[in-house]
C-alpha cells in the first residue's frame, strides 16, 4: 500500500504562510545587499578624484598638438615674463591658458596647465587661438560652480577661504599611485579658485620637487 499524506486545511494554510514568509525574507535580504553595494559604489565614486591630464587637446608631458595649438615658437616664448611659462588666449580673448615648463621637462612637453580669466591690460601681446573654451577631459571649465567641481572631483585634500576660495586636490603617494608611477613624478596637484561662487582660475599638473 502506498503511503498517503493528507494535509488539513489548517496545515495547508500554515505551509503557504511559511513559504510566503521565506520568500519575503529572501527578497528583503537580496534587496538589502544590493542597496548596500550600490551605496558603497556611489560613495566610492563621489570620493574618487580622477586627475585631469588634458585641456583642449593638449596633454601633460606630451608634444601632441603643441605646434598646432600653441605655435611652433612656443619654446622661444618661455620666460618672456620672467617665468618658464607661455600663454595663449581663447578665440574671444576672455580666457588665458598658461603652459608651465619645469626643470627636466622635454621640449614642448609641459608639466602643468593654468587656465584663468584674461586681463585685457596684460594680454595685448599674447597670441590668440581658435579655441572657444579651455575645457579639461572631465569637462571642467571657467564659470563652473563650487558644487559642480565637488560633484566631479569629490572631497578635496584641503580648502582655503581668503579673497578667493580655493579647493586643492593632491596625489602624493608615489608608492601606490599608478598615475605618478606611469609618469615617474613626485606629486600631482589641482587647484581651483572661486570668486562669487564661480570658478575664475584653475591649475593642474605635476609638482616639481
List the helices and strands and how they pair.
Layout: H1 9-46, E1 54-55, E2 58-59, H2 66-70, H3 74-77, E3 85-89, E4 95-100, E5 112-117, H4 146-153, E6 158-161, E7 165-171, H5 178-183, E8 187-195, E9 198-207
Antiparallel strand pairs: 1-2, 3-4, 4-5, 5-9, 6-7, 7-8, 8-9
Form type = globular
Please report the number of helical segments: 5
How far apart are the first and last residues' alpha carbons, in Å?
A: 91 Å
Radius of gyration: 28 Å
Q: What characterizes the major β-sheet?
A: 7 strands, antiparallel
**Count of individual domains:** 2
Could you give the count of β-strands? 9
Q: Report the average pLDDT across residues.
A: 82
Task: Give the percentage of residues in beta strands.
Answer: 15-25%
Written account of the structure:
The protein has a seven-stranded antiparallel beta sheet. The protein has a two-stranded antiparallel ribbon with strand order 1-2. A hairpin with a 2-residue loop joins strand 8 (187-195) and strand 9. It has five helices and nine strands. The chain is an alpha+beta fold. It has helices at residues 9-46, 66-70, 74-77, 146-153, 178-183, and strands at 54-55, 58-59, 85-89, 95-100, 112-117, 158-161, 165-171, 187-195, 198-207. The chain has two domains: 7-46; 54-207, no CATH class.
Descriptive labels:
single chain, 209 residues, alpha+beta, 2 domains, 7-stranded antiparallel sheet, 5 helices, 9 strands, disordered N terminus
Sum this structure up briefly.
29% of the residues lie in helices and 24% in strands. By secondary structure, it is α+β, with helices and mostly antiparallel strands. It folds into two domains: 7-46; 54-207, no CATH class.
